[in-house]
Write a structure and sequence with these properties.
With 233 residues, the chain is of the alpha/beta class. The chain has a single domain, classed as Aldolase class I (TIM Barrel, Alpha-Beta Barrel). The protein contains 7 helices and 8 strands. Helix 2 links the parallel strand 3 and strand 4. The protein is globular, with a radius of gyration of 17 Å.
Length: 233
């Protein structure tokens, strides 16, 4: 099964150095309050018309983009919850497109299989918090060992990748980022993402603040002792 919650036909910013389409998968095992795609959290279609986003229609569209697009970004929701993810990616690769996978890192077994079979060209993994705060920030009970395993898999994969964290000031302190730095030590790329209050899951967070540019610069400077390249956006 592969549930598509939506499609963006073109992006110039979501797949580094490539023109790509985006596939949004339906369903997520996290409930982060700041999630900006709340309609994708359920494994059921809600406000979305499922008939508009079938696999068949997506691949028909993709056929018309051969020679025009470089790749496909698969995001969510959480794509690794989809039992049909492997075959979906394999078909995209067979058409000659590069694939970027966005993941929350909870299913390292699936990521490892995709990496072993050379089906991924780029991976972006969200680092939600220091490992001990994961359940709090994600509002979910998870196997935190899987998060750690997925980080190590990605770091040692030989595939281009980035780690990234959405930042609400009241949720993540400077000390928390020190712990995150230790958690991803040796990584190549890490991005801090400003929280932008818009359509989010937890409306109580709508008035929350992120750090100032000066504070972000200080965080990035400190994290450079752990990560090769750090920036905020």
């Amino acid at each position: 099964m592969f549930l598509i919650g939506g499609i963006q036909k073109t992006t110039l910013v979501d797949f580094p150095n490539k023109v790509a389409a985006i596939v949004f998968t339906q369903g997520c095992n996290f409930r982060c309050g700041y999630c900006h795609n709340p309609s994708l959290l359920s494994k059921r279609y809600s406000e979305l018309d499922s008939e508009s986003f079938t696999k068949e229609k997506f691949f028909s569209f993709l056929q018309t983009r051969i020679g025009k697009l470089d790749g496909v970004v698969i995001t969510g929701g959480e794509p690794t919850l989809q039992s049909g993810l492997y075959d979906f990616i394999k078909e995209i690769k067979q058409m000659g497109f590069a694939v970027k996978l966005d993941t929350n890192g909870t299913n390292p077994k699936i990521v490892e299989q995709l990496l072993n079979d050379n089906l991924l060209d780029y991976i972006a993994m969200d680092i939600k918090a220091p490992i001990k705060k994961y359940n709090l920030i994600t509002c979910s009970k998870i196997n935190r060992d899987n998060i750690v395993k997925n980080i190590e898999l990605i770091k040692n994969s030989g595939v281009d990748y980035e780690f990234r964290t959405t930042v609400i000031k009241s949720q993540l302190s400077f000390d928390d980022f020190e712990k995150i730095g230790e958690m991803i030590k040796g990584a190549k790329y890490y991005y801090l993402q400003k929280f932008v209050p818009s359509e989010i899951l937890d409306k109580n967070l709508i008035n929350e603040q992120t750090y100032t540019d000066e504070e972000f610069k200080a965080l990035c400077q400190n994290l450079k002792k752990y990560v090769e390249f750090v920036d905020y956006r």
